Amino acid sequence: MTAASDGVLHTLFHSEQGGHEQVVLCQDRATGLKAVIALHSTALGPALGGTRFYPYATEAEAVADALNLARGMSYKNAMAGLDHGGGKAVIIGDPEQIKSEELLLAYGRFVASLNGLYVTACDVGTYVADMDVVARTNRWTTGRSPENGGAGDSSVLTAFGVFQGMRASAQELWGDPTLRGRKVGVAGVGKVGHYLVEHLVSDGAEVYVTDVREESVRRITEKFPQVTVVADTDALIRVEGLDVYAPCALGGALNEETVPFLTARIVCGAANNQLAHPGIEKDLVERGILYAPDYVVNAGGVIQVADELHGFDFDRCKAKAVKIFDTTLEIFARAKADGIPPAAAADRIAEQRMAEARRA
Ligand SMILES: NC(=O)c1ccc[n+]([C@@H]2O[C@H](COP(=O)([O-])OP(=O)(O)OC[C@H]3O[C@@H](n4cnc5c(N)ncnc54)[C@H](O)[C@@H]3O)[C@@H](O)[C@H]2O)c1
User: Fold this and answer.
1) Which of 62, 290, 324, 352 is deepest in the core (most CB within 10 A)?
2) Which residues form the Glutamate/phenylalanine/leucine/valine/L-tryptophan dehydrogenase C-terminal domain (predicted)?
């Protein structure tokens, strides 16, 4: 055993970040499959979380990522009000090089072996077409195409949920849930960002966008000529009089290079893991910026995939995603009551829900 894998085991069994119920190491020599399925909690129901396919530098790194992501899903699912615990799988390797139908089927058989304890979906490196293959081996695969009983693109509901979180943030700060007349900056106008812009424009917001891909920007400006395009994220966070900043590109958007310069009073966006490291949430509070926790407001996607298990119904999902408004307000209230940042308040509420489910 190497020091690195020793470290992972220590995390699993002894640290605050651990406490996972089960970790499954999967190997299929014939197809080259090496995967880790981590079940953090099944207190609220079967563990739900996507499958990441990624060329990890080491196997220990892959296990650590699976543990971390699975834990995050427990919190996200608890806050979304789903009857699901948190889990995540990682397949080790470069999908461009090793992804094959046989490998995905081998992976699906491991998901099947858990007999419903783990429900999978897409994540970085896996797509709807892959889930269609994985689903051939088990009943616990979501993120499938509509032709295969799935719900397809989750970004529609994700954007809708983020918009609900933003409306709740506006209610909290300005006493009115509308974004009408507010300056909102959206960083990243890909799948989720462009739907978010649509909501903002129809609500009467003054929208600013930036994206590294020309095509994403062009699609927005063709549809919404009134939107202002700025050069990059650095310029966006400094827009004079910006009211809301919505990170909708990559993780780590809130860090030492951005938080001190943000002109916005609210941060609410779709990107996962926006806080670059622990402590940034306190910097936001000190600057008087209201942060709507990422995993709470971007839960529309997971609400959608969870629904697939019951035969997908868009209206039922939308009704659940509307609740992101109330949940976000509940978090702000708890943050005030406990004198802690909203990110910490969200964690506290999620932990409470899981603890209550365990006791029941
Ligand atoms: N799609 C979903 O349902 C969903 C659900 C939950 C969370 N998220 C998260 O939301 C974020 C966006 O997801 P998506 O599905 O829209 O992805 P996407 O890849 O479709 O869009 C991301 C966009 O960000 C742009 N971008 C990348 N780096 C940038 C930078 N430095 N500055 C400006 N723009 C940049 C890309 O060019 C792209 O247009 C991701 O962090 C994702 O993990 C997505």
Assistant:
1) 324
2) 152-359
